[in-house]
Structure formats: structure tokens, C-alpha cells
Amino acid sequence: MSSPDYLIVGAGYAGSVCARELAEAGKTVMLIDRRDHIGGNAYDKVDEHGILIHPYGPHIFHTNSKRVFEYLSRFTNWRFYEHRVLAQVGAQLLPIPINRTTINKLYGLSLSGAEVQAYLDQVRQPRDPIKTSEDVVLNSVGPDLCDKFFRGYTKKQWGLDLSELSAGVAARIPTRDNDDDRYFGDSFQFMPDQGYTRMFERMLNHPNITVRVSCDYKQVREQFAGAQLVYTGPIDAYFDHCYGPLPYRSLRFDHEHLPTQAQFQPVGTVNYPNDHDYTRITEFKHLTGEQHAGTSIVREYPQAEGDPYYPIPRPENEALFKRYEALAEQQSGVTFVGRLAQYRYYNMDQIVATALAAAEKLIANRPAGDAA
Known about the structure:
Layout (H helix, E strand, L loop, with lengths): L5 E4 L3 H12 L4 E4 L12 E2 L5 E2 L7 E3 L2 H7 L5 E3 L4 E5 L2 E5 L3 H8 L5 H11 L9 H26 L8 H5 L16 E5 L3 H8 L5 E4 L4 H4 L7 E4 L3 H4 L9 E11 L10 E3 L8 E4 H5 L6 E9 L6 E2 L3 H15 L4 E3 L11 H17 L8
Parallel strand pairs: 1-2, 1-11, 2-10, 7-13, 11-17
Antiparallel strand pairs: 3-4, 5-9, 6-9, 7-8, 12-15, 12-16, 13-14, 14-15
Helix pairs in contact: 1-12
């Protein structure tokens, strides 16, 4: 492909969905990624022991959007899976999000659902206005549950205290007065039956799409200078960090195979809010349903340096992003989409929805007489 209509930077959800939509609209697309694979952080592979793992940590698909679910269903069949997480508090493994079981086991109580809510009303510390994640948690569950489940985990995950993070971080985790121990409450909770990478391969299998991995945008941007650009990388990197770097939190993944253990832990993920340097351990066979004599796990160690994973939600970081966003809006022929390009803590389904909307806008704004 000598002169594609579009150059798309990044072969994760945002770039791949845009590529497929533009290709089906008759556009030619060159999709590049600096890594040696497609799928972004959702990339999965079979490890050397024959177990399907997620090299960049667990990715569990969940959504309330029927449109997003049906769109991805074009490229995969699904395995029903409801993710469950336990948190180690002292010697106990307790459900998180906090529910009736959590409170009863932690405090040796036998509260009914109505009594759970009354208990929480008794221990909570009302906060108004709610500005930080500390405000959210204390307003919901009070100081003891906050310290046991949230404060230490947040400090490890973000390198910041709850009081230093915007309210939206903690607001993602509900509190329940029943025994529902599912981590997510969404209508659609599934895993791709052959993995995420296979889903991306099918999505990108179109004659109008050319994929090039191990390819850095800066090395080829002159070669494809005439193409419209869809950019899904870090927005600050696109502008050579002219206002300074946007803060991100990174992760280090410690993968381990246990050849003599069929099961390492009772659920897919166990959180460690107050012990160890890692935040959580995930055992992949729970997610995939695979049968194997051994098992593969991953420990996650948050860190300041490394690949950007999580935009850090603080008002000053949002203000810096707005400066870059203003530059982006002045660019012609460039669309910024995705978690890094929009500096948003998006879930997978949110990225798909955002990419679909961006592609629709690009297709609708094509010049008069352009091919459909």
C-alpha cells in the first residue's frame, strides 16, 4: 500500500475498531504499532506451558452497551464469565466490592440486607462536597473499611493517598447490601472464547487494512504524510511533551507458572491491599476456563516509570491535558482517540464506543463525491 487514505497509530481497541470501520467504508488503512503484536494491552498468548495468559495483566470484558457487545460479537464467540475478586485482610479472604458477606465475616456479624445498610449509615462519615476518592470512600463505608480495603491498595496502585485522587477513581467500585460477589454488575460479562488476540485478528482481516507491527510512528510519519491520521498513543508524546509530560502510572508484571498446582487461588483475582509490594494476583485459568495440570499466575507491581497504563486522575493533570487537547483541536487531518490520546481511564467497552463514534464522524465528514 503506497498511499493509504488513513494512517492509524496503535493497534489496540481504539485503532483496530477505527481501522475496521474505515475499511468497511471503502477507505484504505495502514495500521501500525510500535510493539511486535496487535491488540494493545488486551493482547493475549499461549505461554510456554500451554496456558492462555494476558501478558499485560487481566482483561475481563464487561459492558452494559448492547451495541458494543454486538459489534465485538462479529469477531468472536464468547465464554460466559463473571469475575470475582477476594481481598486479603489479615488472615481472611473477603469479597470485594464490599458486600454483606464481607461485613459479616470481617466483624463476626449476621446482618440482614437492611441491617447492612443501617450499619454503613452508622459508620460512614458524611462528606459534602465530595471532591476526592477519600471523600467517596469515607462517605460510603467509613474509616475502618476504608483503611482495610482501600487506603493501602490505592497508595500502592497510584503512589498517592486517597485524598490526592479525584473522586471518580473510588466511585468505580460499588458497595452492596446483599451477597452479590461479582466484581462487575454489567449486563454483558463474557470472555472471547479463543482469546482477545484472535478477536483482533478477525477484526483486522479486511483487504483494505494493512498491519505493520514493530513500527514507530515517528519513523514513518513522513512516508505517509498525505494520509489522514488517527492517533491513539499518548497525546503529550505526539506534541513532543511541549508542556511537560502527562503523569501516568505504570505496572510491572511478574508471571509465574506453577507446574504442580492445578489451582492457586479460589477466584480469578486476589487483592492485597495491606500486604506485599504487589496489588493483586490473577490466575488465568479462572478467566479462560482452561483445564491444565499446572497453572499460570501474574503479580502486578505498580510503578512510576515504564509504559503508560493509567492516566492519574487529579485536577492539575486534567488541566495539563486540556492544554494538549487545545493543541489537538488545532490540528487538521488528525483524530485523537483512546485512553492515552484522550487521557481517560476508559474500560475496554468505553474505548470501543469512543472509537465507533470517532469513525462515524470521520466517515460522515468525507468530501462530497468520495467513495462510500
